[in-house]
Protein 1
Amino acid sequence: MRVLVVEDEALIRTDLGEALTAAGFLTESCRDGAEALFLGDTEDYDLVVLDLGLPSLDGLSILRQWRDHGRVMPVLVLTARGTWSERVAGIEAGADDYLPKPFHMEELVARARALVRRAAGHGSAIQTLGDLRLDGNQMRLTQQGRPLKLTALEYRLVVYLFHHRDRTVPVTELLEHLYGDDESRDVNAIEAVITRLRRKMGTGAIGNRRGFGYYLRGTAE
Ligand code: CA
C-alpha cells in the first residue's frame, strides 16, 4: 500500500511518514502544493493524506483538480481544529475522510487503514482467504493459525494481493505500489519476493499468469 503525505510542516510530515511506514505503508511525502498536484495526477497511490494550508497551491484546489481529472484514490484531509466550514469544503471537494489538527497518530493510522480497505471493497480489518487470515490492525498474517514471519516488503505484497484478491494483479502495478518511484525497481525484484513468499507460505499460496501478474490463492497445497 502506497501513501502520499502532503504536509508543509516538517515535524508533522516526519511523524506522519514514520507512523505510516511503521503501519506497513510505503510512504512518500512532499511539502509543496504544486508538486503534490503533479504527483497525484501522475503516480498511483492507495491513499493521500492532504494538509489544506500549503505553499504554492492550497489543498482544496489540489483535491478539486484531482477529482476533475478523474483521480479516485482515497484522500484524508487534515483540517484546523474547530473549522467546520473547512471540513464541509473538504468533503464537497471530494475528501473521503478528515481529521482535525492536532490529532492522535493512532487515530490517523486507523483511519488510513480503513480508507484503503474500503477503497478495495473490504469493510473489516480481518480478512480470510483459504487458510490465510490477515489482521490488518495487528499487521499479522497467519496460515492455518500459524503466524507467518514476513519482512516489511513481503507483508506489503501480501496485503496488496489480499485487497485485490478478486483479480490477477499485473507486475507493473505491484512495482508501482511496492516500490513507488524508486529507480531500482524492476520485475526481477518482484519475482524474488514472490519466491521468498512461496517458500514461507507454500508454492500454491500465490498463483501467477505467466508474463502478466500474480494472485492470491490462499492455500498452501
Ligand atoms: Ca500547513
Protein 2
Amino acid sequence: MILLKSKTEIETLRRAARVVAQTLDMVEAELRPGMTTGKLDELIESFIRSQGAIPGFKGYQGFPASACISIDDEVVHGIPGKREIREGEIVSVDVGTVVDDYYGDSARTFAVGEVSEEKRRLLEYTRKSLEAGIDKARNGNKLGEISAAVQEVAESQGYGVVRQLVGHGIGRSMHEEPQVPNFGSVQEGPVLKTGMVICIEPMINMGTYEVKTLPDGWTVVSADGSPSAHFEHQVAITDDGPDILSLA
Ligand code: MG
Ligand code: MG
C-alpha cells in the first residue's frame, strides 16, 4: 500500500531530508585524500546529531554506521572503516536521518581531487539521469515515466543501469511502497498522486549493470569492476509538480 502524506507530514520529511542535504554539503567541504571512510562517518554522525536528528542508517537491519560510503567500483552500501580515500577516486555517500519519527534519505557521489574525464562524465550523467527522473515525478504520471527517463539518459552514454537495487517510498519507514526502479517502460507502475513521497536514486555503472555483494554481506560492487555512481533525492509529488525535499 502506498501511504499518502499530509502537508504537515511532508514538512516533517523536509526537515529530515534537509539535515541529510546539509550533511552532504559538510562532506563536500571536508572530504580530502588521506581521510579514512571511518573518519568521514564519524564526522557525519556528529553533524547529524548536532542538528538534533538521529542517524537513520545506524543499526538499520544491523548496518554498523551512519553513512554508506562506496568508492569507485563499490555501487552502494559500503561500510565505513580503515580504507583511506585517495585522489582520483569517486566516493558515493548515502546518508539517512530521522527527525520526529520521519526519515530523510539522499546521496551524492563526490570526485576526490582530480578525477579522470571518464569518471567526471559518469557523475555528470548520473546526476542528469536523476534530474530527468525527478522531472517526471508529477501527479497523474505513471511511475514508469520516472524509470524510463532515468534509463534513457544513462543508457544514452552506454552506461549500465543497476537493476537489483531500486528507489522507494519513504515516510515513517525508510523503505515504503512503491519501489522506484531506474529502468522500465512508461506504462509500468502505479499512477503518481499528490502526497506520495519517494526516493529516486539511480545507481549507474560505467560498464555492465550487473552487480554482486561482497562477503561482508553489505557492499555491492559492479560485477565487472567498473566505477559506479549514485545520486539520490527525496521528492514529494505535489499539485505544483515535484518538490525536492533533500535540499539544504
Ligand atoms: Mg539513500
Ligand atoms: Mg534510498
Protein 3
Amino acid sequence: MNKRNIIIDCDPGIDDVIAISLAIANEDKLNILGISTVAGNQSIEKVTNNALKLVSFFDKNIKVAQGSKCPLIREKTVAKYVHGDTGMGNYELPPSKFSLYSNNAITFLRDTIINADGKVTLVPIGPLTNIALLIKTFPEVVDKIELLSIMGGATIGGNRTSCAEFNVWADPEAARIVFDSNIPIVMSGLNITHQTGLDKNDISNLLNSQGAVSHMVGEILDFYLKGDHVNGGTFAPIHDACSIMYLIHPEIYEYKHMEVKVDCSEGLSRGNTVTDVRDWVTYDESYPKVLLQVNSEKFKELLIEYIYKLDRMFER
Ligand code: BDR
Ligand code: CA
C-alpha cells in the first residue's frame, strides 16, 4: 500500500497532541512530511514549542514550521480555559532536542507540497489561517493537494459559542476561503467528534499505565476533561484525532457530500458552518464530505490500541 503524504497544520493543544501521536503510531500508512503551527489554543510561540517538544519526545525529527500569529482579520483569542496556560494542561514535556525548521509555515507548506513525490493531504486541526494564506498566496499548490481532512465546524451547534465550533469561529474569513476553495474536503465537525472519545475510566487506565506515552495522554486528558467535555464532565471528545483516524480507518465513518458555507458575520452566528443536511437534497462529490456517523466503540478501541503501540515503540 502506498503511504499517504500528510502535513499536520495544528495548534497543540491537548487533542492536537493526541492527533499527532496517532499519526506517528501509523507511519506505516502515513508519510508525515511536516507539522505547521497556527495560533489558536494558545499563542504561536507556545503551540510551536509544544509541537517541537512532542516530536522530540517521540525522537522523531519531523520538520516543524511556525505559522500565523493571529487570524486574518479578527482579534486573536486563545483557548486557555480548555488547554491551560502552556497549551498542554499541567503536563511538562522535556525541552526539545530539535530546532524549528522554518519560521514561515506558508512557504514551508508551499515548498513541501510542490516538492513532494505525489499529492499531499493536509490535516488542518486548528484555525484555518495558514491554509487560507497558502491558497491565496500560492494557488499553484491547489492541484497537488489531494485532500483537506479538517477538524472544524459542525452540522449543528457549537462549542466556542452556541452555534460555532472553535477553529472556525477563531478565523471565519480563513475558513470561508478554505471551504470555498474547491479542494476536496473531509469535515470532522463537532457532530462527529462528540460521538466518540474517552471516558473517565479510560483516562484513569491510561494514567495508571507504566507506559510513557499512555501516561502522558492520561495526564493531558485528565486536565482536558475539566475544560472540554460532554455528559457532565465524564467523557472527553478527542476532536482532532478524528481527522487522522479518518485517514487510517475511513471504514468506521458514514458521510454525505454537502454544501458547507461559513458565516462571517459578527454577532451570534459568527463562525457557524451552514451545512445543507436536508435529506432530499443531493450534492455531487465536488462538495465537502461531511462525516455524520462513527462507530464510536471501534474508534475508542483503535485509539487506545495505538496509544499502547506507541508505548511499545518508545519504551524508555
Ligand atoms: C477544536 O478546538 C480546539 O480547542 C481543539 O484543539 C480542536 O481543534 C475543537 O473545537
Ligand atoms: Ca486543535
Protein 4
Amino acid sequence: MDTECLFCRIVAGEIPTTVVHETDTTIAFRDIDPKAAVHVLVIPKTHYPDIVALAADPAAAADVLAASAAVAEAEGLTADGFRVLFNTGPYAGQEVFHVHAHVLGGEPLGPMLAIR
Ligand code: 5GP
Ligand code: ZN
C-alpha cells in the first residue's frame, strides 16, 4: 500500500466511501463528485499509477474490466448504454494516480469529448 495514495487508503478502509462492488482484487465505489446520474470508480486493490502500468499485468487489467462490466450490470446500465474511461496523464486531467475506471451512465452522456 502507498500511504500517500488516496485510493490505497480507500482500499485500506481509512477513508469512507460507498462501495457498490468488490472482488478479491478490485473495489468499486461511487465518485464523490459525480459527473453523471451513475458515476462509479473501479480500481484494482493493488496500486498501479495508470492504465499503462495496469496493462503490464494482464490478469489485473482483466479483473478491472470484468468488475467494470459487473458494475454496469448491477447499476442497470447495460440496456441504455454507458461509458467506461481511464483518464491518463496531464492532457486527460488525471488527478488520482491510482488507476481507476470511471463507469458513467444512467442518463444520456452527450458527446464523447468536450473539445469537439
Ligand atoms: P481522475 O481525474 O483522476 O480521472 O478522477 C479522479 C476522480 O476521483 C474524480 O472524479 C473525483 O471526483 C474522485 N475523487 C477524488 N477524491 C475522492 C474521494 O475521496 N472519494 C471518492 N469516492 N471519489 C473521489
Ligand atoms: Zn494507490
